[in-house]
Specification:
Largest sheet: none
Radius of gyration: 35 Å
Strand content: under 5%
Number of strands: 0
Order of helices and strands: HH
Shape: rod-shaped
Number of helices: 2
Distance between the termini: 51 Å
Structural class: mainly alpha
Length: 147
């Protein structure tokens, strides 16, 4: 039985390693989405600053319309990026939960194996003590018989 449990532990270790790598990739994706969102927001802020600066110098309606249309496109892109980030965060959280679940399963089986090994060690120690006691008793009676 312990062989079967050890095999399960080995499989769980492999699955946990895979889950860990997948989680790392999900975290990288999340960081990429966050970075892209930050870049979009920074670009929008810069572009809005340009609009304000140029607006103070005078802009005609067409130029203002172009600026405003581009800012709207940046807002739309940021909204889409934010939605993508929300989905990526959820996927990352799901991968983290999967990894933790595999880790808990592995630890539980390893604990079971440790307990089984400890019980076996106690049983072995008792058997050895019994043999030593029997040997000591045998030697005692053997010496008594020789005397």
């Amino acid at each position: 039985m312990s062989r079967a449990i050890q095999l399960l532990v080995d499989r769980l270790i492999e699955a946990e390693d895979r889950a860990s790598r997948i989680l790392a990739l999900a975290r990288q994706d999340q960081m990429r989405y966050e970075s892209q969102l930050e870049a979009l927001n920074q670009y929008r802020e810069n572009y809005s600053g340009q609009l304000t600066e140029r607006g103070s110098k005078g802009l005609n309606g067409l130029q203002f319309g172009h600026y405003q249309a581009f800012i709207n496109k940046l807002d739309h892109a940021a909204t889409q990026q934010l939605e993508g980030l929300r989905q990526v965060r959820q996927a990352t959280e799901n991968r983290r939960k999967e990894w933790l679940e595999l880790q808990q399963q592995r630890k539980a089986l390893e604990m079971l194996l440790e307990r089984k090994a400890a019980k076996e060690a106690i049983k072995q120690a008792r058997q050895e003590q019994k043999l030593l006691d029997e040997f000591a008793t045998f030697r005692y009676f053997h010496r008594q018989a020789e005397s």
